[in-house]
# Entry
Amino acid sequence: MRRLLPQSTYARNVLTLMTGTTLAQAIPVAISPLLTRLYSPEEFGRFALYMAVTMIASVLVTGRYELAILLPRQDKDALHIAALAMVLSIAMSAVLLLVVLFFAQPIAVLLGDAALAPWLYWVPASTLLLGMYQSLNYWSNRKAQYKRLAISRTVQSGSASLAQLGSGYAGSGAVGLVGGQITGQVLATSVLARLIWREDHGLIRTLLPLRSVALAKKYIDFPKYLIVAHGFNTASGQMPVLLLSALFNTTAAGFFTLTQRVMAAPMALVAGALGDVFRQEASQAYMRQGQCKAIYQKTFKRLLLISAVPFTIFFFVAPALFAWMFGEQWRVAGEYAQILTPMAFLQFITSPLSSMFMIAEKQRLDLLWQIFLLFLVIVSFVLGKFFSNSADALKIFSSAYCLAYGVNGVMTYHFAKNSTSLWKN
# Structure
């Protein structure tokens, strides 16, 4: 049995994360056929709008300082950055709460669904939990504590799914999807915080507020550039839901949400695990050698080999598969999935490697790429509205994303080689 297990540290780390992430993804995918029979496409669309607003707002709360946790040579400095990110999460979520208290109804109307307004009051709670969790996540990533991450992801997925399932049987509507999501966030953050305290409480007791302030100034480029850059990135990722609802209807957003739910599983399962390990090992190699070309190439080849055949098969069977698994009313979601498969394939390969922007400290170039991506997304759906067809909008959207991911891959490969003459920050 020992001979069957991976021998390299890299492979063992990937296996650990993949095991936890497999459980985390298997649970919601397994119960999705039940959820699609308990919640309507419109209710899924409303939940998608809530999550879109939450994900865009969450970019602000940490100042993106959590991404700097991997960079300091000393763990003590990295922990001060983690503490800084968590304090900012509390402060910024409080500000978001004030915004929602005064503008919930106008925001809901702008998004094309006035019934969303009551659930917007929970957005600050979600952003706070996301900010706290991401800070703890990157600290565990730095410490190569992949078991922590696997446990917390499983807890989050399992508790959220069970809460959504129970609420669905109770007939609670979209509030069940929102409440289940928050339940998962609370439990996952609590579990990860407990595991970190148990192992790192000695170092945590040495925290000094003034040191966090000094490090905030040292890594000021992260909030200076990455809030905008990742704001564009998150907006690009969430814009299909927002625009499908605003330009077409909430039901179209619901179909798209189920498509994302299913297609995100391999991203989180394999690409996410490889990306976490790549980020840790590449950052260490880059600090020591000034480049990480070998690790980049190894990760790229593994992503390509893993993904080529499954994505090809999925392209041909998606509509029939969705109708069989989730009910005939969800066949449209399968047609959406077929349209988005080429985009998902390139995303699977390039996204785990995109941390090279941070590792090589190319935040300005990342910002330019994010602006380019958001521009392509908005143009895609505006053109799709011209054709008065959500499927045509998604075809243009998928093609635009393929172009953007191709550019991203070329850039990150040059960063890994440290080709500064080609890509100056």
Remarks:
- The radius of gyration is 21 Å.
